[in-house]
Amino acid sequence: MSESHALKIAAVDKLTPNAVALTFDIPENLKEVYNFKAGQYITLKHELDGKELRRAYSISSPPSSGKLTVGIKKMEDGTFSVYANESLKAGDTMEVMPPEGRFVFEATTPQKIAAFAAGSGITPIMSIAQTVLESDPENTFVLVFGNQSPEETMYFKEIQSIKEKYGERFFVQYVYSRSNVDEALFGRIERSTVNFVLKNKFKGTTFDGFYLCGPEEMIHQVTDTLKENGVAEDKIHFELFTSEDTEDNLAEELEGKTQVKVILDDETFTFVMDKKELVLDAVLKQDIDAPYSCQGGVCSSCIARLTEGKAEMVKNQILTDGEIEEGFVLTCQSHPTTSKITVDYDDV
């Protein structure tokens, strides 16, 4: 498992009244560690009121910039997001895990890309959009971006700058749920929005890929509508920044104990857990420093391979059927269903 490093915050920039961008200073000896692909995220670790918090935030800067920047929106009843917006300043240090994540764009042949983002879901899209546009002079990028109002739109100035720089290769359709603005759609990103983009505004355009980032309901609506329009599933890439709570009915059905072997950083740990527990929860109770971040099945930090035994996931928004067949699980969502399991965090 990759270790975190204490990085100094080089800048804190106000994006909206309720969002900031943090840029970290990367020492020369750690440049390789923090190389990233457009669309990836980093996990920030911080102790607040005696409790360690881990939060995953997508990188908004493109890899070509040489910067490591994340956008953080203040969430209602949030803990770390409130602290980041109200207390962090340039010069502070924070433990930062190396970049990870599978929601990435890698340049190949010339491509036409479209993205649908809502709220802070714009963060990884900023990195992807700039990478698409700079990687080939024939590439085009269409952004559909939903917010409450222009004032609450993260990276608004930066998006306008990209628009000026790339002209007819970069198109933006704003959608506002609480503001009527010229040339913007009113409401939320939903079925009608997708159809308007595909059948009206960009009729006749064949897109090579779609990138979606936002709340779960938006992801599902956009995905379903794209498929209705004949878009192949392998062209649709998505990342959730929030996920609806799923009731864990599986725990009620399971009885008994499981003997667990955990392989992490070339060390082996063994213990016994109740099948009603989630694997990650049981691992952390043993003071084993397993990788994790959201603990809600949204990020991919806690992925491990099951090399012995079986486990069932409460929910899965990340792993493909092929990866599940290879034994990969999200340990934060997995209950053991056999008397023995071996969980290998190194074989990922």
UniProtKB/TrEMBL annotation:
<keyword id="KW-0479">Metal-binding</keyword>
<dbReference type="InterPro" id="IPR001041">
    <property type="entry name" value="2Fe-2S_ferredoxin-type"/>
</dbReference>
<dbReference type="Pfam" id="PF00970">
    <property type="entry name" value="FAD_binding_6"/>
</dbReference>
<keyword id="KW-0408">Iron</keyword>
<dbReference type="InterPro" id="IPR050415">
    <property type="entry name" value="MRET"/>
</dbReference>
<feature type="domain" description="FAD-binding FR-type">
    <location>
        <begin position="2"/>
        <end position="106"/>
    </location>
</feature>
<dbReference type="GO" id="GO:0046872">
    <property type="term" value="F:metal ion binding"/>
</dbReference>
<dbReference type="GO" id="GO:0050660">
    <property type="term" value="F:flavin adenine dinucleotide binding"/>
</dbReference>
<dbReference type="InterPro" id="IPR036010">
    <property type="entry name" value="2Fe-2S_ferredoxin-like_sf"/>
</dbReference>
<keyword id="KW-0285">Flavoprotein</keyword>
<dbReference type="InterPro" id="IPR017938">
    <property type="entry name" value="Riboflavin_synthase-like_b-brl"/>
</dbReference>
<dbReference type="InterPro" id="IPR017927">
    <property type="entry name" value="FAD-bd_FR_type"/>
</dbReference>
<keyword id="KW-0001">2Fe-2S</keyword>
<dbReference type="InterPro" id="IPR008333">
    <property type="entry name" value="Cbr1-like_FAD-bd_dom"/>
</dbReference>
<dbReference type="Pfam" id="PF00111">
    <property type="entry name" value="Fer2"/>
</dbReference>
<dbReference type="InterPro" id="IPR039261">
    <property type="entry name" value="FNR_nucleotide-bd"/>
</dbReference>
<dbReference type="InterPro" id="IPR006058">
    <property type="entry name" value="2Fe2S_fd_BS"/>
</dbReference>
<dbReference type="GO" id="GO:0016491">
    <property type="term" value="F:oxidoreductase activity"/>
</dbReference>
<dbReference type="InterPro" id="IPR001433">
    <property type="entry name" value="OxRdtase_FAD/NAD-bd"/>
</dbReference>
<dbReference type="InterPro" id="IPR001709">
    <property type="entry name" value="Flavoprot_Pyr_Nucl_cyt_Rdtase"/>
</dbReference>
<protein>
    <submittedName>
        <fullName>Flavodoxin reductase</fullName>
    </submittedName>
</protein>
<keyword id="KW-0274">FAD</keyword>
<keyword id="KW-0560">Oxidoreductase</keyword>
<dbReference type="Pfam" id="PF00175">
    <property type="entry name" value="NAD_binding_1"/>
</dbReference>
<keyword id="KW-0411">Iron-sulfur</keyword>
<dbReference type="InterPro" id="IPR012675">
    <property type="entry name" value="Beta-grasp_dom_sf"/>
</dbReference>
<feature type="domain" description="2Fe-2S ferredoxin-type">
    <location>
        <begin position="258"/>
        <end position="348"/>
    </location>
</feature>
<dbReference type="GO" id="GO:0051537">
    <property type="term" value="F:2 iron, 2 sulfur cluster binding"/>
</dbReference>
